Amino acid sequence: MNGLPLLPERIETARLVLRRWTLADAEDLLAYAADPEWSRFLPVPEPYERRHADEAVARWVLEDWSTRPVWAMEIAGRASGGINLRIDHQHRKGELGYALARRHWGNGYMTEAVRAVIDAAFAALPALARVQAGANARNRASIRVMERLGMTHEGTIPHAPRGTDLESREAGVIYAVLREEWEQSR
Ligand SMILES: CC(C)(COP(=O)(O)OP(=O)(O)OC[C@H]1O[C@@H](n2cnc3c(N)ncnc32)[C@H](O)[C@@H]1OP(=O)(O)O)[C@@H](O)C(=O)NCCC(=O)NCCS
Question: Which residue in 9, 21, 116, 128 is a FRET match for 74, CA 20 to 30 A apart?
Answer without folding.
Answer: 128
